[in-house]
Amino acid sequence: MPVPYPRSQIRGIARQFGLNMISSAPMPSLYRKHAVIRMQTETGTYALKPFIKSELLRTSTVKQMNSAADDVRHLMNSGYLHMPPWLPANSGKLWILDRGRPFYVTAWIEGRPMQTAQDFEQLGQALAALHAIPPGKAGLKRAPALEQIRLWKTKDSFFRKTTARLHQKGRYRRWIETYGKACTSLSERAWSELATPETIRLIKDEAARPSFVHNDVTMPNVILSGDGRLFLIDWDRIRLGSAFIDTAKAIKNTTQFNPEFIQSFLTGYEQHRPLGKAARKTIAALYALPLEVWSAFRFPSRAGSRQMLRTIDRTWQQRVKAVEFMDAWAGLASGIPCPSNIHRKMGRLPRGEST
């Protein structure tokens, strides 16, 4: 199998950023074998990142890269401290186009993943600081949260139809009987809260005052450097959007359903960006949505989907406790059904077999 980025290409790209490369090594992510290239140069270590477009946006890769670079430059000019510095190319731009693909270069951040409650408090501070930066440009024509909610409602509807069909065929029967009703209850509670007049008004107002959002705050994308400073990496998805959604997804993707970590994150966030009652309810409702379940049942026969269903089975009680914690924080009434057969192991979920 050919190497995606030959050394000669990497060396040529490095020169376009004024760097003389000594060595390079591809580094993997959860989803890509060659997600980023670690370059050792005469002036230090850098991360060379091939830009990956979002398929959810109906624009070209180059337009998405250009937009992301403009937003990053704005953050740099605003003094945002939790992003690795981007290196300008010889042209003055923050990216270059090589063989049809955009690339950008940042400082390489060496460090450790989040481990303590204090780390999560610092993450909350970093995300709140990002959301608080004035965008310096016009608002959005549509409320980003409403657009995302419509998409998630479509996924919820697809999940219900899929589980009904699979249950009739006897496939994944045990999983569906154990968790299907509870997942539907979670989404219905969330939809009900998100449909209240105060919540709708809040998320509609966000269109006029959108926030910069990272859109991919996950454990691998958060690094604590040797001096204890927290960095968010992988800024391919930066754009103006909903701070409520960005916050709810960050909590879900990083805190491991641990109430102590969740509380620390929220404490740090509200130190920089206090949240009113309606904002808290909105974030808690968004957090409760069973996004991973919907994703798994989009293609239930895939190995990754089956693994996700086993993971949800194993962590269900922690997930419920985390939702209850968020409800209490937001002042919402909690009432999540706990399946009577919750302790029964799901076992294997092989392709084409009943459960």
Automatic annotation (TrEMBL):
All copies of domain Aminoglycoside phosphotransferase, residue ranges: 98-274
Gene Ontology CC entries for this record: endospore-forming forespore
Name of this protein: Aminoglycoside phosphotransferase domain-containing protein
Pfam families reported in the protein's UniProt record: APH (PF01636)
UniProt superkingdom: Bacteria
